[in-house]
Batch of 2 targets.
Target 1
Amino acid sequence: MDSLFAWIETTSVARATANSLALTAALSAIHLLGFTLVMGSALLANLKRLGALLPQCSVAAVLRPANRAILVGLAISVTTGALLFAARATAVSANGTFQLKMLLLLTAAAFHFAVGRNDYVQRPGVAPWARAGAAVSLSLWFALAVTACAFILLE
Amino acid sequence: MTLSTIFEWLESTALAAVIQESAYGFPLVVALHILGLTLSVGTLVWVDLRLLGLSLRGMRVSEVYRGLAPWFAAGFLMMFASGAVLFTAYATSAYANVFFRIKMLALLLAALNAVAFHFVGGRRSTAWDAAPRPPATVRIAGLASLLLWVTVIVAGRLMSYTMFSAP
């Protein structure tokens, strides 16, 4: 594993990122833009599932675009995040906060899309289990945001 | 009284000292700033996408706006309060930073855009409230909001890379 991370750091993209503060700053700005889209869309989707938003429209009408936007946001953040990671792969992979961030990212995304799927069925009321699922999903996304802040600020 | 004396006074306040000197003061306030940002801009994006006629087209504009307003208002409050606290601690170096100036300009334009939309464009909203694709002026307001907030976020992020690291 260690030799893999060491090798990643020697690749040309990793070196280009590591050697340029401007590139690092630009990547992290795009990383945050992607994450803003993820969080806003996760909020929209889960508040709708909780029954706290837009009572006039169906769950599916909100979930479909919101979940699509979460995927777009994740694609942006994961791509830029991978490049930022490559530049400092050895140090970052050993960081406990980073490991927690990755664990929360996988858990939040997997849980959100696993419990969200059943909601595509168009129905007027929201079942109690769907509300519980939405609350857990929202908590996981929020925990990811807090951990991401801790990673960047307390390193 | 010049700007620089005001900035120096701000930096000498007890509030500024907490941010400058305590181990967790700064990261905690920055974290609130970022969380406030994802909450506010993350939800406002959906109002902008609706104004642009790109998403949530089956819903009324007023419905989307009213539904999300408490969330982006709470996020903006968080972001502005934490931003003001951060500014007191680093007023002089922030003011001198080009990205801070770009950010403030974009913020001002975003606010003007919102006010103009609310008081000028919003008046006749009944005509297009339910329209899947609102008129051009409305779509321009939505696009302007989206681009200005992207500018605020990017400039804000670049600020942190240029303000604190050694030249």
Target 2
Amino acid sequence: MKLLYFAWVRSRIGMAAEDIAPPDGVNNVTALVEWLRTRGPGYMLAFADLEVVRVAVNQEHADFDAAIKPGDEIAFFPPVTGG
Amino acid sequence: MIKVQEQDFDLQAEVAALIKGKTDIGGVVSFTGLVRDVSEGAKVAAMTLEHYPGMTQKQLAAIEAEACARWPLSASLIIHRYGRLLPGEQIMAVVTASAHRQAAFEAAEFLVDWLKTKAPFWKLESDGAQETWVEARDSDDAAAERWEK
């Protein structure tokens, strides 16, 4: 599973991308975030307030209850500010 | 047409290329977004636009397709830059061309409103000393929501 981080989510976690293999049972975005939070203070900080974190699964905007599976590309980022 | 690029663009040349050879167009509307030197009362010395390559192209194409489904457009263009920009520089532009002005005006507004809340770009502003990520505005969400069906 490939994870991508953008904007302040990237700077808080301290990297732009990583390949991970979460434990069995991590089959939706919320479960993935819960697991990521256990991996260190940067993750804790990035995912402290999920109201201001958005997620995309395979380059499409998704909800936190979206299903995920091995091979997916999952991106976390703040609300977008282009235009 | 979607263009995601680091370099600046010449809007007049882009419009000319977009409508070249098409004679069914009665009006062309364009909107250009620029970097302001003040944001929320704070000085802006430079802005860096980050984006999600891959998803950006996909999302902009989907937004453009939605506009084409809603209005009878003869041609359309979304250009969005990324990288480091200075005050006064062009950030993005949308162009819509249609037989009649109303469709072109409405579609242009729709494109800007939707891309502001859906296209994966993030602005990092610098006042010369400190860098701050721009926060999404509720007013942008409200502007996008009025187009929800």
